[in-house]
Amino acid sequence: MIYLLYGKELLLIEKKMEEIIQREELSDYAINKYDLENDSLNVIIEDATTISMFGNKKGIIVANSYIFTGTTKKSSIEQNTDLLLSYLEHPNPDTILIFFILSEKLDERKKITKSIKKVGSVIEIGTNKNLNAIVKEMFEDYEISSNVAQLLIDRVGENLQILKQECDKMKTYKGKEKGITEQDILNLTAKNIDADIFRLIENIVLKNKQIALEAYQEMIKRNEEPIKILIMLANQFRIMYQAKELSKKGYTANDIASILEVHPYRLKLALEKSRNFSSTILLHYLEELANLDSNIKSGFIEKDLALELFILKI
């Protein structure tokens, strides 16, 4: 059997792979792992065609399978996809071959993509379930209410990898005590300033000045440095502007994340927010924030008031 898994959340892809491995009854020692950024298709296909030394079935997992997408930058290795096309015509029935790629979409025009769709199982892995439900699943047999799960999301953000780390940390702390409380979240997690920055931007987008001011003041109450907030806000607007311009030129989200050297999740949020602004407005906000930074450093304005004035002018 041949699988191609794609989506933006590695955690969900890994979960799906685990389901496939269990369903196909593959043992750990019968699974070989490759990465198309470092390994040649020649080696992978040769492995796929040989008989397993440990039983009837063996598994092969291939990470960063960019050959099924429109990306142009990945490996220095020249991948011969004709080898894979030939293999797909006569696959080894005793090999479970799983390709996966962190990408929102495949390149449906490619011959290799059309071929694997005919003979294999191509699965888009998306966050179809709401994030609150996913967090509850992460806690397994621990009890957590929807309100407490949402508090965790609000504090650490929506990145599934980070949420999983926080859930595992709390389960270790609680041990045999199975109830997760609001106080546990407050005691064991640190408020993610990135989540606050996006909340601030969200309300700037909606021109909710009062809520934006409240969000800013909450950060100040937690002793966040105004200059740090200003810089993070400027950096986020800069990423939004650059992502917007690169998207106009036809670059994929994966390519943009690589070019700008930012986490794919952060880029996803930036692209979503950038749709609410013109490039001209984004540049205007960057200029305003640069002027505020200069005026603070020159002593022309109090740092605590600078961002409040910026918010009031939106």
Low-confidence stretches: none
Strand percentage, roughly?
A: 5-15%
Give the ordered list of helices and strands. EHEHEHEHEHHHHHHHHHHH
> CATH topology of the largest domain, anyone?
Rossmann fold
Indicate the CATH architecture of the largest domain. Answer: 3-Layer(aba) Sandwich
**Quaternary organisation:** single chain
CATH H-level homologous superfamily name of the largest domain: P-loop containing nucleotide triphosphate hydrolases
Q: Main sheet: which strands, in order across?
A: 2-3-4-1-5
* Helical coverage, percent range: 55-70%
The major beta sheet can be summarized as: 5 strands, parallel
Q: Terminal Cα separation, in Å?
A: 56 Å
Question: What class would the helix/strand composition place it in?
Answer: alpha/beta
Short description:
With 314 residues, this protein is an alpha/beta fold. 58% of the residues lie in helices and 10% in strands.
